[in-house]
Amino acid sequence: MASAKLLPAYLVVGPDEVKRTAAQDRLKARLEASGLAAFNLDERDMTKPQEPDEVIASLSTYPMGADFRLVILSGCEHLPKAMSEALVSYLAHPAPDTVCLIVADSLAKNTRLYKAVAKLGKQAIIDCSAKKRWELPAYVQGMAGRHGIAITSAAAEELVARSGESTRMLDTQLKKLAEVIGGGTIEVGDVERYVARTAEAKPWDFLDAVSARDAARALELYRLLPPRSEVRLFALLLGRVRELIVAKALDARGAARELASTLGVRDWQVKNHVRWSRAFTMDELVGALRSAEDVECALKGSRDSETAFVGWVLSLTK
């Protein structure tokens, strides 16, 4: 039986909505192959009142003309204790021809329900953890294929910057771009033309643009950041300059791999630092530190604080 390859239950857990939906769609598609999905699919919103006996009865119902019955329980992050315990008891001796898909935005690993599902096998936990910001562009490139398009790395970066970190929003924008472009590869210009900025610009994107010596991008992001944030941005950028100096020094010694440990950060936090540092001379970076003293003085109550800060940014990116 095809259902022998399926576990009696899975926990789809994490805030990545696209991945959660994909997990559900895969099982639905497998069920629909039988032609009797309407008789063998039960979807329940567990954020609404549910009787434990009714849910367990559904899980215990035999499939009709199909290899398995699929019961999807969504919104299981805050189940009432009676419901949670009923599911734990059921999972101790689950129905052999039913697949229970438990969907939750989050569920602690030390809960009885999590442990009950985990006991069913290594594949029972489907991790839908949120991607880190730096992982999203590559993830977007993978998502684009599901819409019959490709997207360049730079365009994916711009899409994340404009749409934010919600995978649901990113997927929606990719679908829209696919419809507008009609196939092929999405370029940066396409994203700029068809995707409105809904996400607030992040200071880290600004720092990265300065580090990459992209003056136009740096100024664009600077204008999108909250007003009168020069003091904070100055402190962050000064820290970045120091990091680039360390990166360049280590690179010159052939010890670039030691950058993260030297700075006491994670590897992903400095993954581009060495490449960025190579676009500067050491004199330029040290000179940026020296000129920072004048900028700091201007930031302390001067009417020319914005002018001084922007001038410093331009001197770094020219």
UniProtKB/TrEMBL annotation:
Protein name from the UniProt record: DNA-directed DNA polymerase
Write out the entry's keywords from A to Z.
DNA replication, DNA-directed DNA polymerase, Nucleotidyltransferase, Transferase
What family is this? Belongs to the DNA polymerase HolA subunit family.
Question: Which SUPFAM superfamilies does the record associate with it?
Answer: P-loop containing nucleoside triphosphate hydrolases, post-AAA+ oligomerization domain-like
Reaction catalyzed: DNA(n) + a 2'-deoxyribonucleoside 5'-triphosphate = DNA(n+1) + diphosphate
Gene Ontology annotations for the cellular component aspect, listed alphabetically: DNA polymerase III complex
EC identifiers of the protein: 2.7.7.7
Q: Which residues cross the membrane?
A: none
**InterPro entries membership:** DNA_pol3_clamp-load_cplx_C, DNA_pol3_delta-like_C, DNA_polIII_delta, P-loop_NTPase
| Stored Pfam families | DNA_pol3_delta_C
The molecular function terms of the Gene Ontology recorded here are: DNA binding; DNA-directed DNA polymerase activity
**In which organism is this protein found?**
[Collinsella] massiliensis
